[in-house]
Design goal:
There is one protein chain. By secondary structure, the chain is an all-beta fold. The protein contains no helices and eleven strands. Strands 2, 4, 5, 6, 9, 10 and 11 form a seven-stranded mixed beta sheet that branches. The protein has a four-stranded antiparallel beta sheet with strand order 1-3-8-7, with no helix packed on it. The radius of gyration is 13 Å and the shape is globular.
């Protein structure tokens, strides 16, 4: 499974960005998919997860500001990020679980200026 993430960039605090992740397989075959991020000197952390039944999980740090979604016809999942804060600055990675194996895309940099 190949995952191609895009949509990162530089934005001012309070702004919005939408990340996209295109998968090389149909999303119907993916049990769980999500977004993670990693800031310099920190561990990679969960940002949002969507299960195959459509249920979602968000950590408190982004709940109410970030939203994960998917377009099955385009084999693409999205991360809509609103009310961005400088502490959201990180490299964002998309992830999928396919047949019990975790796959990672190359990251996309998100930088939020104060």
């Amino acid at each position: 499974v190949q995952l191609q993430a895009s949509g990162g960039g530089l934005v001012q605090a309070g702004g919005s960005l939408r990340l996209s992740c295109v998968a090389s397989v149909t999303l119907f075959s993916i049990r769980r998919m999500g977004w993670y991020r990693q800031a310099p000197g920190t561990q990679r952390e969960l940002v949002a997860v969507m299960n195959s039944d459509g249920s979602t999980i968000y950590p408190i740090s982004v709940k109410g500001r970030f939203s994960i979604s998917r377009d099955n016809a385009k084999n693409t999942m999205y991360l809509q990020m609103n009310s961005l804060k400088p502490e959201d600055t990180a490299v964002y990675y998309c992830n999928s679980e396919f047949l019990g194996v975790n796959y990672w895309g190359k990251g996309t940099q998100v930088t939020v200026s104060s």
